Amino acid sequence: MTIADNRTRWLALYVLCLGSLMIVLDVTIVGVALPSIREDLGFSETSLAWVVNGYLLTYGGFLLLGGRLGDIFGHRRLFVAGIGLFTLASLACGLSTTQWMLVSARTVQGIGGAVASAVSLSLMMTLFTEPAERAKAMGIFGFVASGGGSIGVLLGGILTDVLNWHWIFLVNFPIGILVVVLSLRLLPGERAPMSGRLDVAGAVTVTAALMLAVYAIVNGNQNGWTSARTLGVLGGAVALLALFLVIESRVRSPLVPLGLFKLRNIAVSNIVGVLWAAGMFAWFFMSALYLQLVLGYSPLQVGLAFLPANLIMGALSIGLSAKLVMRFGFRKPLAVGLSLASIGLLLFVRAPVDGTFLVDVLPSMILLGIGAGMAFNPVLLAAMSDVEPSESGLASGLVNTSFMMGGALGLAVLASVAASRSHNLRLGGADELSALAGGYHLAFLLGAVFAAAGAVIGGTLLRQAPLAAGEHAGHAGAPAAEASS
């Protein structure tokens, strides 16, 4: 199904991007406001983490289920429901006056965000079936996904400084209403729900497994990675995942057909997604900590420091990235992009305690902006290229889950490594700033390794599929030009 009016299709894409940006922003915009939230509502250091973790828990847990529900009941219907739930939960967050109210609303926000995110890519594939247009649209969408996090730091700093922390949530309410109204007018409607039964047992087990895994990861540093609690929760997640695989191999209509993972581009792009998300979180979070805690930047200055990378990323994503994929296929732009990002992270490894923006920050930001702008388009296109229309929501949910889990796991590992290194340096007699910088340096190095591994795996194992007109971008029977619902 396509929309005849070309202008309407592009407007519909911008609506999808606005909804996705709202969800991506919410992960990072909260970080800047956490000190204010803690002071206002009386959170302890431990309980404050649940303002972030409550959202991550349900967001990570419901991505796969949300994607499959979209395939069964209709992608537009699920996108509107997800954005609607996210918007109402945002209002509840903004009006919160107690700890339990805020944390509860954040968990509901995560469910709405997961459902909307899981079907957004499949809706975009529906809107754009011509390869060149699809590559361009995917570039715009990729910029929102990759650049939204650092935009969140900037907006969070402005809203918290100028108004108060409540507005980082309340601002979502009018935007969410606008997205719902425009989605109903511009997105293609489904004639009828698709055939298929919901695999309830599979849905329950995989959602519980993902939620347990996220819980273990986000609390690993606090509880200890080898503690009985962490290992027990991880063991429970593995056991549920094993049970899920058994269920999927036996039911008639599985939530996740296991044959999907035999498709090379699906498997490889999800592995690359995990590695790249881990590297990206090294960039975003560790460099923000370096700027704020070592160089003494304010939250607003940190956001502005990311502006050059965002501008470069946007220019590449919207313009050059699509042309590179059309000309060279998936492998080369992905390998070059992630290699440049890896070099950008390596430059941060030498960032000194008394670093300056022009010499020690800007070169890394430029390389990371170029790398991210080049890499996201081929990763997302490759992830969706092998699937039939009836499974596009599931593929969208899978790649979102890969980015989510890769980011969460990567951040947990990087934070643990950085803290351990800083502690050892303090014991060795280093001053506080030098110890902090040394910890971040090791995290940047590890992030560079993640990005480089993604470049090698994607550059060698993805099926080479230039999206030139008339060429197939998927397996036999699923050319990219036909991946519409």
- Which blocks of ≥5 consecutive residues have pLDDT under 50? 466-485
Q: Which structural class do the helices and strands define? A: mainly alpha
Proportion in β-strands: under 5%
Shape: globular
Largest sheet: none
Q: How many strand segments?
A: 0
Q: Mean pLDDT, rounded to whole units?
A: 80
Cα-to-Cα separation, first versus last residue: 6 Å
- Count of discrete alpha- or pi-helical segments spanning 4 or more residues: 17
Helix content: over 70%
Element string (H = helix, E = strand): HHHHHHHHHHHHHHHHH
Rg (C-alpha, Å): 21 Å
Description of the molecule:
This protein has 485 residues and is mainly alpha-helical. The protein has 17 helices and no strands. Mean pLDDT is 80; it is low at 466-485.
Provide a quick synopsis of the model.
The protein has helices at residues 6-41, 45-73, 75-94, 99-127, 131-162, 167-170, 172-186, 200-218, 220-223, 228-250, 264-294, 299-305, 307-328, 331-348, 357-385, 392-427, 432-461.
Descriptive labels:
485 residues; mainly alpha
Question: Helices, strands, pairings?
Answer:
Elements: H1 6-41, H2 45-73, H3 75-94, H4 99-127, H5 131-162, H6 167-170, H7 172-186, H8 200-218, H9 220-223, H10 228-250, H11 264-294, H12 299-305, H13 307-328, H14 331-348, H15 357-385, H16 392-427, H17 432-461
Helix pairs in contact: 1-2, 1-4, 1-5, 1-7, 2-3, 2-4, 2-8, 2-16, 3-4, 3-7, 4-5, 4-16, 5-12, 5-13, 5-15, 8-10, 11-14, 11-15, 11-16, 11-17, 13-15, 14-15, 14-17, 16-17
